[in-house]
Amino acid sequence: MPTSADRLVRTLSQHGLRQTPVRRSVLQVLADAAFALSGSEIEQQLPAGTDRITLYRTLKSFEESGLIHRVIDSTDVVRYAACSIECSAEAHFDNHVHFKCTICQHIYCLNQVAIPTVTLPAQFQVVSRDYLLAGVCRECQPAV
Amino acid sequence: MPTSADRLVRTLSQHGLRQTPVRRSVLQVLADAAFALSGSEIEQQLPAGTDRITLYRTLKSFEESGLIHRVIDSTDVVRYAACSIECSAEAHFDNHVHFKCTICQHIYCLNQVAIPTVTLPAQFQVVSRDYLLAGVCRECQPAV
DNA sequence: AATACAAAAGTAACAAAGTTGCAGTTGAGC
DNA sequence: GCTCAACTGCAACTTTGTTACTTTTGTATT
Q: How many Å apart are CA A46 and CA A42, to the nearest integer?
């Protein structure tokens, strides 16, 4: 039975990335996260002393390889979440809505909720779609 | 017949804001823009010597007053667009999709295209929605 | 039209987030 | 166990935006 570490190794090599301590830790952090994380949030969860520049470069190459995806936020920070198993550099299946809680600020990937399509005026060619909901999440509902 | 300047004056006073040179210029720039602008893009279009801090404060108060709205982007910059006539601090009618061109990078407000709703798992309470499409806009279509 | 006062502007210093260039290190295939 | 491109680490920097504080100004009132 494959351990969590095995899975990380496999994921990296499947995407043509080298096995390095930083990459394994970053991937671990994102895989364990229940919601999208910003660069500095990831940094805080990494082993102390991990270089910030290396982290940003790691995130960039992970994104290019289709390992993680950018999650849009209503503020000016970029957040990332681990892609579901089917993603690759060639084909991103990131067709789900995101939900941002205005209380805890967490952004959830609602993998089971697909983004509805819209009809656009002629001449607009759509390549990708992002749908971000904001409101109050399960955890932050006021007690009844 | 009301001039463009008259309209600016009226818009500011209707929202309880004072008439100042910076506010008039910022509002003018946003009203004239065909697409959403970032802080620094607005700064470039203002009269030379306009203070950057004042600009950011102006944007903040415009947003709070419902004169402009934040437009989410897939990058880490905040962009703003002038609200349509019906918005106020109390009621924002910002229920339209946005379209980002991957070639010219412009973000258009498609005021005529409403955001479709989705059904969420129980316990998620939705307050607002953002829908950002990406692709190629009218201007950037390859010649046929 | 002078006054008063809060709202807005200006100035300086700072902070967070992310990038670039370059030298050194290391994983992985031969 | 060599080789080399891929990756890391350091320094210095840029961009974007903020905070604290002082000065100026728009507007309502007399």
A: 6
Kindly give, in sequence order, each residue whose CB lies less than 8 Å from that of residue B48, ignoring residues fewer than 6 positions away: none
What are the pLDDT tens digits along chain A (144 aa)? Answer: 566 778 888 889 988 899 999 999 999 999 999 899 999 999 999 988 899 999 999 999 999 998 999 998 888 889 999 876 555 555 555 688 999 999 899 999 888 888 999 998 888 999 889 999 999 998 898 876
The H or E element spanning position A129 is strand A125-136
CA dist., res. B29 & res. A108, Å (int): 36
Tell me how far apart the alpha carbons of residues A9 and B129 are, in angstroms, rounded to a whole number. 37
Residues in B closer than 8 angstroms to A142, CB to CB, are none
Domains of chain A: 4-137 (1.10.10.10)
**Please, what is the Cα angle at B61 between B55 and B63, to 5 degrees?**
100
- Maximum distance among all Cα pairs of chain A, rounded to whole angstroms: 52
CA dist A12 and A7 (Å) reads: 9
Q: Count how many residues are written for chain B.
A: 144
In angstroms, how far is D14 C1' from A115 CA?
37
CA distances, A4 to each of A7, A135, B30, B138 (Å)? 5, 33, 51, 47
Contact across the interface for A123 and B131, Cβ inside 8 Å: no
